[in-house]
Amino acid sequence: MRPTKSIVPVKFLYWSSQITTMSLEMGLLIGVGYWLDLKYGTSPGFLLGGCGLGLLAVGWQLFRLVRSGMQGVLAGKSQRTPKTESTSRSESKN
């Protein structure tokens, strides 16, 4: 019996959620800075502050993402797909 394949790979969903989170963090902080500039008339002070905080937030998320991936590699977790029945049979013939 062949294993069923997922329509959307889990890794794709994980990475897309991480990238979406980083984009929203950056956009939200820039937007808040822009709004504060409009409210208080301090152009471009808060906008630049929002950009700086956004870059820090995205950098921290990226650091955590890379660190968690490297811990998996250093712990010896393989990124390969598990062997299926058909590939194990072909390997046993050799």
Automatic annotation (TrEMBL):
Return the Pfam families for the record: ATPase_gene1
Keyword annotations for this protein? Membrane, Transmembrane, Transmembrane helix
In residue numbers, the region (Disordered) covers 74-94
Say if the entry is tagged with keyword Transmembrane: yes
Q: Where is the composition biased (Basic and acidic residues)?
A: 82-94
Q: Where are the transmembrane segments?
A: 12-36, 42-63
Designated name of the protein: Putative F0F1-ATPase subunit (ATPase_gene1)
Which lineage ranks, top first, belong to the organism behind this chain?
Bacteria, Pseudomonadati, Planctomycetota, Planctomycetia, Planctomycetales
